[in-house]
Protein 1
Amino acid sequence: MSVREESQITIGGEDDPAKSTARRAGKRRLVICGIAVAAVAAAGTAVALTGGSSRKPPSGAAPATADIVRTDLTDQTQVDGTLGFADSYTVSGSGRGRLTWLPDEGRTIRRGRRVYEVDSRKVPLFYGAVPFWRTLRSGVSGGRDVRELESNLTALGYGDDVTVDDSFTAATAAAVRDWQDDLGVSRTGAVAPGDVVIEPGAVRIKKVGASLGGPAGGQILTANGTAHQITVQLPVNQQELAVDGAKVGVELPGGRTTTGHISSVGTVATASSDSDDQNQAGQDTETATVPVYITLDHGSSAGHLDGAPVTVGFTSSTHKGVLAVPVQALLAQAAGTYAVEVVDSAGRHTVPVELGIFADGKVEVSGSGLTAGMKVEVPRS
């Protein structure tokens, strides 16, 4: 039996097939004597179990070989995750008027662009943290909402004479009128709470819940941020793998790979929802997971995917400067031991080896007389 963990294999006990999916996903590949042979065979190598087994090339043909290399091997534990978008927002209307335009789901909306229309009046997106709760006009008292208004007007090119502060001045009112003129709405010089949508940044429309012609009140749509994010439910017994800022490997649909880093780790563990009531108390600690959030180093690597299952590789250990050979070079021997077939000027001879970690199609080996640069026999492709 084996549990998927890239190319890595460690020697250990059998896994319990009754464990939950979350636990199985993070298990390292387990090898017990001949079980390791199956892993090697899966890599394309036919392995005999008789002592001293070797490969014999066709008569007169030179054996296929690969170099023994000195390298760094990283042992990774792979866990399933979900690719999506970071952050979640709910956009609600003020209740005045009727909806006359709504965005398509999946559309990205940036500062100054319309989020929806009410009575054919555009309601654009402004960036900020404080929703407008009052009408901003000349004479209004200072506040953070005034600063946000001025910051957005300046970012949109209307703030040449505006000082971004907490005060609504005549210059602010003039900038508002210029912006309103370009937006195609009445030049009042004032901004009411329902005139703009305030979110921390650009948004991607997730779901439109309102209908054209419906009242512009209550929840109109939901949205996400525009940055991709991966969420992994990591078993609590492997929580030590998740360190803020740590690098991870990511396998995307179709076999494409990229890298990311851990942006945050949840602090509340939750148990699997499929535990039955009678056994829940005993199983909760076994099935409990914590959420781990991962940001892609190159956001474009996700392409146009809105959401997808992915596999995340967490580094559990790194062996530096070790000797390694291709997994296909291993020969299974009696009693669960292994060897490689060294090819040199003196011919071919079998060298017993001890195995370390498996990674990227290679395996760490140590054996009498083995050095980097030696040739070992591998199957012909």
Note: The chain has a mean pLDDT of 84.
Protein 2
Amino acid sequence: MPIRLDKLVSEKFGLSRRAAQDAVRNGRIDLEGERCDEPGREVETDTPIEFFPNRPKARIVAGRLRILHEDPHVLIVDKPAGVLTLPTPDRERDTLIERAGRYLTLRHGNPRPFVGVVHRLDKDTSGALALARTHEAVRAFQALFKAHDIERQYLAVVEGLPTRASGTIDLPLITDRGDLRRGVGRRPGEGRAAITHYRVIEQFGPVASLVACWLETGRTHQIRIHMAEIGHPVVGDAVYRPRNRPRCKAQFQRQALHAQTLGFRHPLTGQDIMVEATVPHDMDALIVDLRNRYGIRGAGG
């Protein structure tokens, strides 16, 4: 049965969960002979791991990034789950912005590289994320996103089986539904327009489905809210899954949501860009487990 790496480290070496997470992030854990800086990675309980408590704190390991595209204007990275895009008051270190800055310093020798945010992914969502390298690029890409001239496909594992193999969810979103959480506007004219297109790719018995989602708009938590609204919350989503909903047999440590592709006409070079971020290990393991346990049917099966 898969287990989070930080939990395995905690159990094997007698560390608190927080200390185990710090050990992983600081490059003091080797997974099958190689350093691993992802506390949330799903591993088997018998996976060989080693702890080096006296190893100098890693400066580069925690900042390692998978680069999907790089040019003088934009850097597109594969954001790991569990990493914030930007710092928050209680989490200022090891954000994606910091990792990207370290990468650019090491690669180009610039001690203070500019890294600008043009869109975001939730902390526990993985996948393709574009970062601007100049102020000009920030303005150009923000205009691109505002005009919805970006192609974005997400993969999500959702609870249950949607009755339609494909569809469009057109429901406006509000920033506070009454419990300080985002939600769907219920009154005429309430909320900002939000449109999600989806298609069922695989069905795992009666338990869950793998769906592809395309954003026509890009509101915060849009896919998570929309899928929950039609009765199929993203597996592992502790925020938007209704509390009175029966326990799902598909369990996951985070929301099973991955930004798979990002495509656009480069606003500064005219080049057509299309990148794809590989499904991360933990989400791939979830999909494989569901296939093995419940079988697989195509959307029309």
Note: The helical segments are 5-13, 17-25, 96-108, 135-146, 222-229, 281-294.
